[in-house]
Design a protein that fits this description.
8 strands, single chain, 128 residues, 2 helices, Jelly Rolls
Length: 128
């Protein structure tokens, strides 16, 4: 299966961030269906306020991905930070926040059910 960025549904768009999600993009045994996602971020985006109200005020969904451009730092539940840069593959376990250091484009694959819940929570937080 393949899909062009332009054909992936925009689930949320706010100043500095566009979240696209293609559900039913495969099945990872033990995790169920996964979604393929393409995120575009502007420098300065911080997910902390959007994750308030989730368990631990953190995204509780794991993600596997690739940074096409830019730089992003995650902070986990223990306060440990990790920075990913253009051309890096990454794995973000459940329990993280994201801060965008430089305009970024990333591709992610996530357990569909869990990440849809997080995206819907963010949509509710911004009232759209």
């Amino acid at each position: 299966m393949k899909i062009a960025k332009e054909n992936i549904e925009v689930k949320m768009e706010i100043p500095g961030a566009v979240v696209r999600q293609r559900t039913d993009f495969g099945d990872a045994t033990g995790l169920g269906k996964i979604s393929g996602e393409y995120f575009s971020f502007s420098a300065g985006v911080d997910t902390t306020p959007l994750f308030m109200g989730l368990e631990g005020n953190l995204c509780q969904c794991p993600h596997w991905g690739y940074v096409l451009s830019g730089q992003i730092t995650t902070t986990d539940v223990e306060g440990v930070q990790e920075t990913v840069n253009a051309n890096d593959l990454f794995y973000w376990p459940a329990g993280h926040n994201v801060k965008v250091n430089a305009d970024a484009e990333i591709v992610m694959f996530s357990p569909q059910h869990e990440h849809s819940q997080v995206i819907n929570h963010m949509i509710d937080k911004i009232g759209k």
